[in-house]
Please model this.
Amino acid sequence: MKHFLLGIVTAATLAGILALARTESTASHRNGPETTDLKIETGDRNPWTSLKINTDASQFQFAVVTDRTGGHREKVFSRAVLQVNLLQPQFVMSVGDLIEGYTLNEERIKNEWDEFDSYVKRFEMPFFYVPGNHDLTNKVMVAKWGERYGRRYYHFTYKNTLFLCLCSENPPDMGTIDPEQREWVAKTLEANKDVRWTFVFLHKPIWTARDLQKNGWAAVEQALAGRKYTVFCGHVHRYQTFERNGTTYYQLATTGGGSRLRGVDYGEFDHIAWVTVKKDGPPLIANVLLEGILPADLKLPDTEEKGFPVRRKPTHPVEGKVTLDGQAVSGATVVFHTFVTETEKYAAVCEGRTDELGRFKMTTYARFDGAPVGDYVVTVVKTSKPEVEGEAPQSLLPAKYADPTLSPLRVTVKESSNTVQFELTSN
Model:
């Protein structure tokens, strides 16, 4: 939503906001302090802008942490807990993928949840669980969730604001809102139709699927119609916003989950969403990078959280340029694919994005680290934003370059610095 405040803020700036927000009062005086909490001598001319403290009894702030797992990196999430404590929100929300999962081994499932719980118990405020595909991979994991946490979807209200926590994972039907949950959503929204705002939390951005009737999201949006609301999700490990039904849906990046960490321009960073709900108007949402939340001594405490072991092949620098009919192609995504014999499908190995001159650098595991040695099929994709809500993005390049089974582009990466040129044609 265009009225939302989106920003990447530092902890120093946020701390200043929080310090002012500690006063709890609703009184307001134009020519003097608004409460007796603020005592200051005023004159005809004063060295301040106003004495109206930025607080209200109905105002509150909460944080949203996003994906911890999917190849989690050591110490990131456990430190994020301590960093959020520095900011002191009223409570903390989540969008799933809290453990690595993808196992039927009950002991391993227990150990992973025990580890995660040991971290979130260090929050100095309530933490609300939302499940992801790593948390509910199979029926065994669903049962273990039920034994520990009970409901997979639920709601609560706080200061006339509704929080709707959904479950998008119902194995074997992943990325769906099941019929029973759809019915529950409709009843819950009807029972809370007079709230000032509604926040929806789920793991996957299932509104990007082809059939929203089949996966259940159409029913959720129908139930939400006519009210003011905001949606948060994760899963993709890349920050993105979607404009739907006159509101903004936020796909958050990571709070420790696997990421190439190419930075803000790529939507790849560790962060939390900081949400301020005010008396009037839409909520204010700021993206707070973890690297900007530091204690007074500028040192983050050590933690025992280990990373998930990821097998990495040696990589070698790859850079190049993309042209179409001799003209540089900007804003295109370049992907190297390899054919997997076992699945008889192509798998993406690394990715790059072209700048205004058509130049790109490939990334496999970490920012611009290149690609492993090998022969690859290359795809180049550039799409436009839909002019009409709900329409699929339109390709701005010939379709053959977007499909690894059709693309004529090939590249061989060698044990050295590699420079390549992809000359696309409209024919």
